[in-house]
């Protein structure tokens, strides 16, 4: 397009001045009768004013005059789309981009039409070329937004993120379309905090948008903020009471531990649609938590009849059957995990279940290879790349700092009479925390809190406060402690944990917060349970841990975390020996009654025979150990790793780099001076005795 009048005509056409554009093109044609560009611009003006047939004829003439003119093919794509020939339009736009590879509009048109054909790979390619051709084009932000959408359709999370950054830099930050895509990106990446923040911004702009409410509820629920999530999602159910929405509500209500309310929501969903897979699966979870494994398995299989690709149902079925999938179920699962385009968070669930099925059939090589793939998929969910998201340097820094700022026992000047008191159980995930909690919670004076979510949140709040105030040890103001204490205790009411003096909290993430826990609740005992490191590592590696546990997907990282916990465990026991009770899992299952009696005494509780029969208790257990904890303790399964010894050599070598006993997991560093776990020698003074001896201090 050499003639400046044609450039002006193109601008007038974009401004909807079709008459002006037409006149300029006619003037050019009077001097240059065969100018294909002028005829093409006149053709697009005709098409865009509704005279598609005239436009077609003019494009035919232009193509006869000069078939290599890019505008002929660019505007031909518009004509063909208007006439319903989308495939022809795509081909014409592709030809235009070949003839003019530096034209933004040619690539943009090609990408947009490919997107309408649902060819998102070609769409993303072409829109990316448009941005390369002219990154400062006025329409670049909108094209980048459409590129982000095409990348998301392919689950190209890094590509989506990069395109959204271009769109936001171009002035689209905070727009509804950007917020929608950022919410979808966060959902697929499993970044629930970002999802909640983005969805809230979306909802602020569109307060009646049910999709925004759903996204916010999901983000909150995945962070454990279930009660707020239920409130946010209620208007969605009220406005659109589909089976799917009732099932989603059931999942959120279940998170609040309201089993009856959750069951009612799932039953409502099934009354609307008996083939609602999500509701069937929800009921299977309730049944699992309540210990009815046979019925839970039946509901998992009903879910899979409806939706053969439901990875959560495969995962739950594997849990309740110990990996005993039928041949047909195994074959179907093998097919499902190989289907392209699976979201990383869902695919990993299927892979973990498949690994368990191979394990049950003693196909050990296939099992570990599948768990490896599952953990690589989890890394993709964390980072968008197969690399660890765990920060070893930060973990070591925190451990060292905590040893400095919490060097010794708490000095208590004032008694705090609380209606309910926490009883903390800490240790690595899969170290036996559920077993010891179940036994203690069978006591008449104790109720099981499970893995409560508040203390990790309070610990992060404490870390922010310490940075902002420059606190580096010593007393913490009582008003600050009272604030944290009130927040922690508020969850008892939220979860219905009332009616007992003591409430257990076995959240594994609490381990790093023991020093803070002792300041907030100086009257609360702490039980630290350990298990043979390689058994812990193997058990973690083969399970689908959430985003909260980034180290769980790499054996070297698990070794590092184990060592850091061993280091801190030795420190807490040395710094506060009257309040921290070490317990060895292997000793507990081999000598259950004497070890349990020792722990119960250390917690200041009178002995209760029901603690020995914990597996008879009628209560919900909402952890990976929900099935195992329904059985008496047994030493038969202390060694689960021998068939995988070769695969776990790397973990053993990594652990050997730290002063950690490979059999017990105890810290053996020069500063280790940990007390006995009990049962040998003279037991320490009990918690109750200490309390009575303190008098009115």
Rg, rounded, reads 32 Å
Structural class computed from helices and strand pairing: mainly alpha
Domain count: the total is: 3
Strand content: under 5%
**What is the C-level CATH assignment of the largest domain?**
Alpha Beta
Determine the number of helices (DSSP H or I, runs of at least 4 residues).
33
Q: Enumerate the strands of the largest sheet in spatial order, edge to edge or round the barrel.
A: 2-3-1-4-5
CATH architecture type of the largest domain: 3-Layer(aba) Sandwich
From the structure above, extract its key features.
33 helices, Serine Threonine Protein Phosphatase 5, Tetratricopeptide repeat, 697 residues, elongated, 3% strand, Rossmann fold, mainly alpha, 3 domains
Overview of the molecule:
The chain has helices at residues 4-14, 18-31, 36-48, 52-65, 70-82, 86-99, 104-116, 120-133, 140-153, 157-172, 176-189, 192-205, 210-222, 226-239, 243-255, 259-272, 277-289, 293-306, 311-321, 327-336, 344-360, 364-383, 392-405, 433-441, 454-469, 478-494, 514-520, 533-541, 555-575, 585-590, 592-602, 649-655, 687-694; strands at residues 421-426, 446-448, 502-505, 526-530, 580-584. A five-stranded parallel beta sheet has the order 2-3-1-4-5, with helices on both faces. Helix 12 (192-205) packs antiparallel against helix 13. Residues 622-626 and 673-697 have low confidence and may be disordered. The protein has 697 residues and is mostly helical. The chain has three domains: 4-201, Serine Threonine Protein Phosphatase 5, Tetratricopeptide repeat, CATH 1.25.40; 210-383, Tetratricopeptide repeat domain (Serine Threonine Protein Phosphatase 5, Tetratricopeptide repeat, Alpha Horseshoe); 395-412 and 419-548 and 559-641 and 654-692, 3-Layer(aba) Sandwich (Rossmann fold), CATH 3.40.50.300.
């Amino acid at each position: 397009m050499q003639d400046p009048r044609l450039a002006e005509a193109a601008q007038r056409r974009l401004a909807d001045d079709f008459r002006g554009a037409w006149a300029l093109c006619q003037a050019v044609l009077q001097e240059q009768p065969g100018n294909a560009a002028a005829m093409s611009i006149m053709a697009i003006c005709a098409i865009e004013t509704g005279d598609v047939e005239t436009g077609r004829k003019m494009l035919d003439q232009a193509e006869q005059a000069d078939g290599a003119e890019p505008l002929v093919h660019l505007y031909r794509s518009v004509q063909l789309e208007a006439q319903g020939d989308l495939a022809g339009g795509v081909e014409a736009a592709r030809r235009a981009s070949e003839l003019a590879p530096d034209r933004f509009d040619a690539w943009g048109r090609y990408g947009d039409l490919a997107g309408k054909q649902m060819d998102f790979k070609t769409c993303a390619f072409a829109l990316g070329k448009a941005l390369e051709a002219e990154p400062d084009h006025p329409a670049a932000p909108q094209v980048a937004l459409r590129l982000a959408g095409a990348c998301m359709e392919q689950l190209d999370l890094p590509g989506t993120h990069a395109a959204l950054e271009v769109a936001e830099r171009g002035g689209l930050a905070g727009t509804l379309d950007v917020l929608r895509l950022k919410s979808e990106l966060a959902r697929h990446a499993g970044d629930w905090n970002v999802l909640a923040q983005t969805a809230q911004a979306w909802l602020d702009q569109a307060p009646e948008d049910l999709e925004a409410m759903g996204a916010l509820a999901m983000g909150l629920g995945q962070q454990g903020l279930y009660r707020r999530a239920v409130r946010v999602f209620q208007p969605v159910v009220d406005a659109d009471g589909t089976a799917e929405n009732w099932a989603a509500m059931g999942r959120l209500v279940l998170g609040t531990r309201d089993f009856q309310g959750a069951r009612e929501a799932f039953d409502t969903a099934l009354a609307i649609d008996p083939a609602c897979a999500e509701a069937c699966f929800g009921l299977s979870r309730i049944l699992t938590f309540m210990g009815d494994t046979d019925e839970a398995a039946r509901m998992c299989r009903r879910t899979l009849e409806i939706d053969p690709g439901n990875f959560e149902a495969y995962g739950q079925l594997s849990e309740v059957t110990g990996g005993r999938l039928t041949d047909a179920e195994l074959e179907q699962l093998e097919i499902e995990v190989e289907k392209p385009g699976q979201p990383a968070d869902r695919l990993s669930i299927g892979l973990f279940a498949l690994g368990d099925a191979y394990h049950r059939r003693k196909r050990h090589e296939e099992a570990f290879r599948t768990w490896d793939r599952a953990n690589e998929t989890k890394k993709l969910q964390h980072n968008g790349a197969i690399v660890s998201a765990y920060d070893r340097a930060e973990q070591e820094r925190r451990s060292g700092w905590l040893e400095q700022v919490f060097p010794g026992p708490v000095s208590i000047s004032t008694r705090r009479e609380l209606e309910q008191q926490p009883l903390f159980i800490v240790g690595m995930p899969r170290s036996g925390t559920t077993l010891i909690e179940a036994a203690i919670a069978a006591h008449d004076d104790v109720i099981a809190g499970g893995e409560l979510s508040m203390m990790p949140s309070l610990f992060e709040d404490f870390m922010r406060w310490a940075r902002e105030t420059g606190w580096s040890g010593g007393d913490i103001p009582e008003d600050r402690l009272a604030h944290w204490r009130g927040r922690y205790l508020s969850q008892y009411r939220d979860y219905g944990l009332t009616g007992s003096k003591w409430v257990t909290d076995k959240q594994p993430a609490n381990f790093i917060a023991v020093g803070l826990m002792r300041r907030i609740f100086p009257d609360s005992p702490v039980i630290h349970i350990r298990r043979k490191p390689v058994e812990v590592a193997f058990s973690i590696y083969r399970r689908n841990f959430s985003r909260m546990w980034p180290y769980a997907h790499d054996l070297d990282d698990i070794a590092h975390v184990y060592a850091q916990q061993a280091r801190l465990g030795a420190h807490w026991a040395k710094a506060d020996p009257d309040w921290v009770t070490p317990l060895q899992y292997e000793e507990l299952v081999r000598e259950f009654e004497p070890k349990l009696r020792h722990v119960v005494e250390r917690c200041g509780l009178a002995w209760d025979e029901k603690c020995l029969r914990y597996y008879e208790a009628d209560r919900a257990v909402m952890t990976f150990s929900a099935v195992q904890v329904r059985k008496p303790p047994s030493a038969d399964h202390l060694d689960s790793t021998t068939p995988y010894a070769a695969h776990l050599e790397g973990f053993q070598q990594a652990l050997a780099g730290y002063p950690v006993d490979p059999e017990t997991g105890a810290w053996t560093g020069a500063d280790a001076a940990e007390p006995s776990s009990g049962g040998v020698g003279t037991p320490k003074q009990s918690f109750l005795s200490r309390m009575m001896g303190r008098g009115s201090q």
